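Hi V.,

Quick status before I head out on leave. The structure for the redesign project is tokenized and pasted below; the design run finished overnight.
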């Protein structure tokens, strides 16, 4: 009996059926170990030794594999056919060797590009050893990403409060998005005019022709720049006679595109189906791993992480056979088509994405697939089958027309095209990917019969005004396409890279377009100013090329790391002398359109509107960046930094509070104001004035007296709890709407619930929350009310919880009770750190890990490394991040 290790349990079950009783197939569930998300996991001073840690869940899976090996004849590593898959096999083998359970048994590596019986059995017949250069490339990539993230992120925290972190590839992808936004801000629209004539043939058929020349000069696109010039040309055309100069019909062949790669699939799924990159990959993963088709689980597509564009010979034969059967011999080209990729640094180690069986027409298996699976499979099947079909045959007709008005001449052109044979278009039609602009193509539909030298009758002259438009923001699809063109990242990492940018709030998606947020633009501007080399497109692409050369066995992976670390570490050290004023000056210049938007009155946007003498500048606070006056504290004007210059930015720029009415109880005035952290309601004046920020989704322009009174009157008493007799109230905290009863909190679904929830519903919500919490008073761990993020010194997240004796702050084994009357929803990170430090018996607002040595000793039992045991921890401060099952750039 042989033990076979694959990545997912779904594949394990299917492959076990294919292999039979002589094999036991177990799943690793992705990576079995990773670099711990703490400082000291990669040690540059010790020749880049790497510590690896096996998490709790993976410990059990490794034990299952080890137990099975004790009675087996050998081990077969059958993880995915890419770099990550090779690395997972290496990790599994390394851990098992350290457990001393291999004991000389044969170990082989097999790869299959599809989960079908034939593909699996063929792979088992051709085993190989682990590809060491491929593993080295993985180790280099993982170390690079770790070193950048854990050394650059602390620089951001110190110099740019509010920034979360920076990654090697994510930072370059973010720069692309931010650079496009800067292009849009700098864009100056230009006026241009198009002229065309509606003409009639002697047979009575009408068609349209565009003006292309005048007075013997060729008119370039957008050459007519104003209405006066357009008017003169229109007058010429109005009084002209028209005659056909030439008619040319030219046959054109249009060839199909190759089958999908990872990036082209993501682009097509975005433009045709509206799928995000991550959604596309999730659905593709299910199709690859297998779907139950009439009682048998079958993989429907080949492996979906690839930049290869070629299909296997047997797949090409199957596609040609299916074309002949389903479309006819006319659609089958004489010879098979072969493709090569144009992507920079592409690795064509395995096939393009294609159906595993072209006879599985989408309509035949519709009933076995959910809606998303069917849409994506249909797309893959059609693109795959079309790639081997005959070219489309198109007849393109160009008609040149002369206009003559008393010796003043002009030239017009009409272009039409007719599909004489649809070819591959019968299966799949390409279209411009989402985010691309039209190129003002002259292609048109069918033209009527037009003959050379015949006269044409003028019906109408059209003169239309246009304005040039800025380049569009990137969509996920067009950003992936651009990253691939530049050689940034790899197909398997695109979806994860985009997800990271969204998760860190560096970008948002609006109408499928990527919009950089203020914090994302600040990070990019900072990196471009002080770490220019490391966000350059060419530098990142060159580094990817070096990783490819490592995988080909041409470079030593540690030599690449040494070269990178030497310069990068020096750059990190240089920033220690960097003053905040230097940072702000650089950001003010780099982000001038964002920080200092133009004013309608034409005044200097850098002069304070309130005092009239102070200079506005970026300021850095504990919650991020804002714009403030240099005359502070005499002038306390501040403005929130907005990612767009729309209504929010205009409102934030209001000089005076907006009066809304008077509180009937206190007699104090209610005003709508703008502050550093956005718009808010204030009742009264002075230090004792009550304030309430506008909840998420509430727009300043929609605030009236009633809404202001409701907001400023919070918390709202709902009624007494029928069991305890204590009041239940509702309010809005830093983390959203909530209910409060006897020191216990429960979240409400929406802001509107705060003002409308009744007593019965409130009691039910509180009871449901208590049930979900697992009964902290009975010894279980109370559910977290809030997660304040990772502790600066590591050791896990800081959370706010509700215990038997009231709310408290938790960090690791430290529990610090909140002072009486403190609102758990409003507790800040700084306040939590101070409470934790006080509880731990230390001074100051932060604390170091007291049990560091003990934890290091405990971790030693689990941790392993690539060479020898490390002698010292890394010197650089590190960020706490979340370890992932499968590393992403």
């Amino acid at each position: 009996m042989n033990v076979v290790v694959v990545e997912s349990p779904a594949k394990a079950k299917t492959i076990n059926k294919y292999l039979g009783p002589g094999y036991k197939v177990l799943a690793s569930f992705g990576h079995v170990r990773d670099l711990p998300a703490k400082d000291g996991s990669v040690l540059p001073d010790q020749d880049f030794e790497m510590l690896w840690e096996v998490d709790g869940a993976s410990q059990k899976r490794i034990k299952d594999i080890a137990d099975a090996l004790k009675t087996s004849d050998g081990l077969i590593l059958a993880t995915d056919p890419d770099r990550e898959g090779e690395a997972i096999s290496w990790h599994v083998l390394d851990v098992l060797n350290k457990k001393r359970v291999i004991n000389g048994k044969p170990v082989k590596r097999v790869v299959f590009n599809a989960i079908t019986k034939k593909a699996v059995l063929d792979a088992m017949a051709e085993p190989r050893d682990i590809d060491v250069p491929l593993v080295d490339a993985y180790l280099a990539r993982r170390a690079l990403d770790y070193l950048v993230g854990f050394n650059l992120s602390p620089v951001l925290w110190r110099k740019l409060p509010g920034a979360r972190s920076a990654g090697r590839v994510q930072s370059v992808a973010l720069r692309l998005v931010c650079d496009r936004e800067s292009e849009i801000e700098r864009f100056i629209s230009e006026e241009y005019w198009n002229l065309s004539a509606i003409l009639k043939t002697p047979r009575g058929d009408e068609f349209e022709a565009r003006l292309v020349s005048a007075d013997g000069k060729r008119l370039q696109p957008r050459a007519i720049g104003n209405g006066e010039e357009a008017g003169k040309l229109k007058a010429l055309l109005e009084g002209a006679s028209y005659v056909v100069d030439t008619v040319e019909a030219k046959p054109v062949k249009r060839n199909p595109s190759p089958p999908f790669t990872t990036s082209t699939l993501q682009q097509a799924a975005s433009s045709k189906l509206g799928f995000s990159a991550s959604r596309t990959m999730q659905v593709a993963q299910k199709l690859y791993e297998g779907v139950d088709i009439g009682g048998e689980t079958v993989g429907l597509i080949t492996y979906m992480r690839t930049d290869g564009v070629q299909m296997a010979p047997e797949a090409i034969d199957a596609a040609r056979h299916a074309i002949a059967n389903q479309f006819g011999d006319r659609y089958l080209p004489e010879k098979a088509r072969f493709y090569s990729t144009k992507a920079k640094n592409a690795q064509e180690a395995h096939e393009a994405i294609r159906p595993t069986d072209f006879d599985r027409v989408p309509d035949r298996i519709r009933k076995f697939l959910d809606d998303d699976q069917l849409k994506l499979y249909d797309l893959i099947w059609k693109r795959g089958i079309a790639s081997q079909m005959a070219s489309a045959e198109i007849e393109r007709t160009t008609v040149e027309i002369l206009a003559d008005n008393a010796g003043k001449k002009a030239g017009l052109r009409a272009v039409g095209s007719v599909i004489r044979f649809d070819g591959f278009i019968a299966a799949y039609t390409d279209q411009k990917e989402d985010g691309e602009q039209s190129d003002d193509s002259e292609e048109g539909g069918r033209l009527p019969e037009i003959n050379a030298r015949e006269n044409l009758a003028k019906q109408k002259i059209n003169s239309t005004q246009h304005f040039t438009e800025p380049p569009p923001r990137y969509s996920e699809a067009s950003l992936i396409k651009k990253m691939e063109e530049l050689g940034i990242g790899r197909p398997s990492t695109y979806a994860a890279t985009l997800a990271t940018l969204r998760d860190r709030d560096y970008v948002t998606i609006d109408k499928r377009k990527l919009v950089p947020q203020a914090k994302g633009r600040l990070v990019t501007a900072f990196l471009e100013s002080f770490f220019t080399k490391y966000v350059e497109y060419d530098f990142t692409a060159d580094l990817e090329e070096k990783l490819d050369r490592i995988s080909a066995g041409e470079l030593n992976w540690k030599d690449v790391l040494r070269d990178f670390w030497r310069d990068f570490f020096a750059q990190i050290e240089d920033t220690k002398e960097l003053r905040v004023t230097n940072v702000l000056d650089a950001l003010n210049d780099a982000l001038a359109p964002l920080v200092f938007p133009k004013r309608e009155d034409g005044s200097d946007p850098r002069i304070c509107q309130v005092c009239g003498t102070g200079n506005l500048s970026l300021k850095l606070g504990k919650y991020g960046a804002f714009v403030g006056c240099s005359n502070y504290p005499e002038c306390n004007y501040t403005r929130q930094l907005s990612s767009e210059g729309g209504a929010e930015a205009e409102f934030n720029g209001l000089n005076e509070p907006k009066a809304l009415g008077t509180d009937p109880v206190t007699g104090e005035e209610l005003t709508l104001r703008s502050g550093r952290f956005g718009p808010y309601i204030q009742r009264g004046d002075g230090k004792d004035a009550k304030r309430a920020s506008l909840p998420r989704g509430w727009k300043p322009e929609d605030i009236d007296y009633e809404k202001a009174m409701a907001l400023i009157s919070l918390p709202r008493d709902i009624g007494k709890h029928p069991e305890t007799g204590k009041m239940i109230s509702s309010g809005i905290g830093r983390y959203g709407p909530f209910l409060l009863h006897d020191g216990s909190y429960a979240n409400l679904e929406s802001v509107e619930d705060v003002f409308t929830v009744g007593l019965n519903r409130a009691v039910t919500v509180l009871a449901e929350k208590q049930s979900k919490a697992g009964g902290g008073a009975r010894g279980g761990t109370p559910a977290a009310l809030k997660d304040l993020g990772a502790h600066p010194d590591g050791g896990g997240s800081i959370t706010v919880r509700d215990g038997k004796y009231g709310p408290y702050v938790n960090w690791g084994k430290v529990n610090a009770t909140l002072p009486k009357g403190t609102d758990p929803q409003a507790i800040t990170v700084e306040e939590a750190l101070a409470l934790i430090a006080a509880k731990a018996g230390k001074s100051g607002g932060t604390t170091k890990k007291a049990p560091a040595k003990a934890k290091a000793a405990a971790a030693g039992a689990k941790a392993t490394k690539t060479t020898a045991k490390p002698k010292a921890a890394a010197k650089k401060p590190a960020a706490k991040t979340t370890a992932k099952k499968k590393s992403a750039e």
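Above is the designed sequence. Residues 432-442, 644-655, 774-780, 842-889 have pLDDT under 50 and may be disordered.

G. will cover questions while I'm gone.

Best,
W.
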